[in-house]
């Protein structure tokens, strides 16, 4: 090796080290996100996504250097993402991903804002900066709708229903002003500055956001973590939340239910529900137990490896809707909604749910507050809580409608937008659920 090639190699190494240290510095927690240079004022300000290009390049380099596990030949999506799929994703990310184009699409598809809200809560007294999508309908009778995403999703989940909600096909179905915020530590809502911002605090924060936008009365639609926040928000702010349409409604199976199940006394519907929840608990909820108990054990690894994080969430994206084909660009885009600010605070949000006695073991909806406002439940087979018996569904809320679909999975708004839109229109087309419209 000549002297020249040694110095060239040393220079390449120095460049790599410099860009990697800038990546490490960017993971500092605080009420801002260094790589996007956003400000969070006390009133809504327009937000355009513009990620520091050197961060995108460093991320690409880290993906290129990524080391992939040998899957030992188990069938794909059993233990996680296969070696072959991981390599395909790695190659695409290194050679083909065009972040500039993805970012342009996000800015084109969504009108976004940042703001800050204050809540009255002993557990979290700091101001709460928020990122949110806000599209207004031209219809004078439009209903304000707060849409909450979950894990491992983001505000991008609302993208396939938002135009039809604001601009429905005709005046016989309701129209909506849509607000879709990022959960704390997700997307471009900065991580909390300390522990204590859980589902109750988030519920207060989103209610404050709706009031700040001059929507004192509104309806809510959510699945996954957003659905849990929704139950708190509806229970704690019934004067503001008119009604809820939830695509995850999984009341806890209690000791009496389990004893009846073991004694073969449960109805076929109850038996199917218990089997579904139990299968999820024993076979699909590993991420949930880890993230809600000792999240930092995986937190450093997931923060350090963009490829590793994308493969971690891709397994969840795939198993909760095997009918859906995720493109490589989609998988990376969904992962980037965490990677840009660092995925740790979002993964840790589960711990806050556990602290609030939610999502503990089989108790999906733990001892949640009863929701008195009307609740519509919309279900698809490839989702946890499928087939909940109506009387069980009513243990945790005033369920006035259950819409059961024979196709679809966990990400209803994104994967089966048409059936979710129909449910929004029929549930809120009923005056008793929306306060406006027919009937
Ligand atoms: C990436 O996308 C941008 C914006 O659409 C475009 O201008 C640019 O040419 C693309 N780059 C490549 C390498 O295709
Ligand atoms: C933006 O919207 C277009 C058209 O609906 C869609 O094809 C594309 O996937 C969307 N991109 C993102 C990042 O939301
Ligand atoms: C209005 O649109 C809805 C939703 O697409 C549809 O079900 C309904 O038949 C339409 N009504 C009229 C009068 O066109
Ligand atoms: C389980 O729920 C049912 C219905 O609400 C109730 O009758 C029963 O007492 C509960 N059992 C326990 C152990 O909480
Ligand atoms: C319940 O049914 C199963 C299968 O039919 C049977 O093996 C079991 O003994 C039954 N248990 C009770 C408590 O009756
Ligand atoms: C603080 O957190 C605890 C545990 O999650 C919860 O029981 C309590 O209601 C919270 N306090 C307030 C003021 O929200
Ligand atoms: C459920 O909602 C309906 C419609 O608003 C209302 O009339 C009824 O009293 C509510 N029931 C409960 C248990 O809160
Ligand atoms: C039950 O729950 C799981 C989630 O773990 C889901 O993937 C499965 O397809 C569900 N549905 C049925 C009908 O078992
Ligand atoms: C509207 O909702 C009320 C309360 O849940 C229900 O009793 C009624 O049947 C609904 N009307 C229609 C047309 O679905």
From TrEMBL:
Residues 1-30 form the signal peptide. The active site is at 224 (nucleophile), 350 (proton donor), 410 (proton acceptor). Residues 44-158 form the Epoxide hydrolase N-terminal domain. The keyword Hydrolase applies. Pfam families: EHN (PF06441). InterPro entries: AB_hydrolase_fold, Epox_hydrolase-like, Epoxide_hydro_N, Epoxide_hydrolase. One of its GO terms (molecular function) is epoxide hydrolase activity. Keywords: Aromatic hydrocarbons catabolism, Hydrolase, Signal. The keyword Metal-binding does not apply. GO terms for biological process: epoxide metabolic process. PANTHER family: EPOXIDE HYDROLASE, EPOXIDE HYDROLASE 1-RELATED. Belongs to the peptidase S33 family. This is Epoxide hydrolase N-terminal domain-containing protein. It comes from Hypocrea atroviridis (strain ATCC 20476 / IMI 206040). The lineage of its organism: Eukaryota, Fungi, Dikarya, Ascomycota, Pezizomycotina.
């Amino acid at each position: 090796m000549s002297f020249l090639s040694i110095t060239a190699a040393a220079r390449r190494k120095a460049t790599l080290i410099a860009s990697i240290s800038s990546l490490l510095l960017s993971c500092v927690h605080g009420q801002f996100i260094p790589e996007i240079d956003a400000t969070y004022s006390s009133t809504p300000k327009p937000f355009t996504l513009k990620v520091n290009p050197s961060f995108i390049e460093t991320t690409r380099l880290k993906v290129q250097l990524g080391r992939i596990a040998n899957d030992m030949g188990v069938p794909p999506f059993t233990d996680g993402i296969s070696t072959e799929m991981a390599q395909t994703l790695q190659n695409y990310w290194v050679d083909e991903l065009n972040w500039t184009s993805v970012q342009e699409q996000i800015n084109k598809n969504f009108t976004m804002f940042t703001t800050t809200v204050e809540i009255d809560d002993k557990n979290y007294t700091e101001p709460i900066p928020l990122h949110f999508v806000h599209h207004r309908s031209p219809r004078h009778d439009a209903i304000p709708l707060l849409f909450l995403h979950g894990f491992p999703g983001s505000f991008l989940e609302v993208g396939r229903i938002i135009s039809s909600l604001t601009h429905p096909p005709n005046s016989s179905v309701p129209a909506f002003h849509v607000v879709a915020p990022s959960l704390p530590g997700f997307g471009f809502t900065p991580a909390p500055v300390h522990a204590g911002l859980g589902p109750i605090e988030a519920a207060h924060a989103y209610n404050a956001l709706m009031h700040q936008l001059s929507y004192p009365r509104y309806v809510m639609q959510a699945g996954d973590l957003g659905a849990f926040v929704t139950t708190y928000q509806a229970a704690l702010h019934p004067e503001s939340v008119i009604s809820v349409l939830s695509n995850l409604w999984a009341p806890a199976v209690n000791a009496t239910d389990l004893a009846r199940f073991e004694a073969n006394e449960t109805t076929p519907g109850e038996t199917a529900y218990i089997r579904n929840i139990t299968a999820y608990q024993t076979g699909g909820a590993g991420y949930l137990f880890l993230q809600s108990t000792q999240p930092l054990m995986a937190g450093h690894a997931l923060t350090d490896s963009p490829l590793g994080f994308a493969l971690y969430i891709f397994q969840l994206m795939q198993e909760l809707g095997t009918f859906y084909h995720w493109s490589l660009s989609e998988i990376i885009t969904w992962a980037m909604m965490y990677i840009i600010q660092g995925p740790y605070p979002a993964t840790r949000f589960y711990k806050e749910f556990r602290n609030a006695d939610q999502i503990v073991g089989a108790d999906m909806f733990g001892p949640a507050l009863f929701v008195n406002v009307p609740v519509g439940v919309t279900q698809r087979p490839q989702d946890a809580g499928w087939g909940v018996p109506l009387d069980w569904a009513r243990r945790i809320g005033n369920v006035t409608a259950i819409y059961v679909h024979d196709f679809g999975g966990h990400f209803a708004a994104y994967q089966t937008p048409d059936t979710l839109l129909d449910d929004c229109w029929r549930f809120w087309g009923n005056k008793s659920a929306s306060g406006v419209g027919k009937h």
